[in-house]
Amino acid sequence: EDHLLLLLLSSPPRSSSxxxxxxxxxxxxxxxxxxxxxxxxPTCVSGAVQVMVASRSLCWGMNIAAHLVIIMDTQYYNGKxxxxxxxxxxxxxxxxxxxxxxxxDDEGRCVIMCQGSKKDFFKKFLYEPLxxxxxxxxxxxxxxxxxxxxxxxxxxxxxxxxxxxxxxxxRMTQNPNYYNLQGVSHRHLSxxxxxxxxxxxxxxxxxxxxxxxxxxDVAPLNLGMIAAYYxxxxxxxxxxxxxxxxxxKVRGLIEIISNAxxxxxxxxxxHEDNLLRQLAQKVPHKLTNPKFNDPHVKxxxxxxxxxxxxxxxxELQSDTEEILSK
Length: 326
Description:
Shape: globular
Keywords: ATP-binding, Helicase, Hydrolase, Membrane, Nucleotide-binding, Transmembrane, Transmembrane helix
Mean pLDDT: 85
CATH topology of the largest domain: Rossmann fold
GO molecular function, one term: ATP binding
CATH class of the largest domain: Alpha Beta
Radius of gyration: 24 Å
Number of strands: 9
Low-confidence stretches: 14-23
Largest sheet: 5 strands, mixed
Subcellular location: Membrane
Organism: Nycticryphes semicollaris
CATH architecture of the largest domain: 3-Layer(aba) Sandwich
Number of helices: 13
Strand content: 5-15%
Helix content: 40-55%
Structural class: alpha/beta
């Protein structure tokens, strides 16, 4: 399940005298440390290794072009919902993008192994252009908070004007249904932007990241400035502010930190709940009725294991490094 990307780094030899088997490298970020990755990549680029097997997550971190890319599956296991879900489109595009070696290949070759029911979708996806939509509205709070801290936005009208210069605004007029607009007239757009600004700024005010004066002017508060400076989610800084105090112990600190919004996407692998259940018996601070498919519970356990210097499997160690890097 972890190895879903096969790259043929060089074209097959045409001479029948080349009968030696191709060298191969099983390459997994869950089991390789950064030093091993840096050591192995030059062997791939130089041609010493001709076939590489890589995990889906690695496709974003390696700078390697291949003669042929084979995507072994188009789904991955989401432990949070206990189900297999499709790869995001951008992941598939990134994998396909590794096909075609510059100055060596005239065309890129990619094989996608998928269910028969999805064959037509991938044909359409690969051969026809897809619209690129804005997701700015999904992270509007942190975006606005940063702009308020830098004084780019000083009132609600500034916020509305700012949005009219974004890609989000351009796509709203082209694909209104995607953004839940009833129409594309000036009134529809104005009402939608005003509602978006009002709701976003209201949430930031409730989180004590900004202040709103006379129902119009906005100014940054300490929490907002801290969140913008350290790139912290506005809900995370609110959680820290409400939960931390001078009497908070280590157990409480770990619990508060592990509930940060930044850890919502920590992966839960298939059958990993058994490993986490065993780990929960070893950590010093026991959890009450933990849900082992919850990324925040996994974060809590791995933080405790890290602080206790416990030996972990390569996969859990990789997840620990991801947690510590956030």
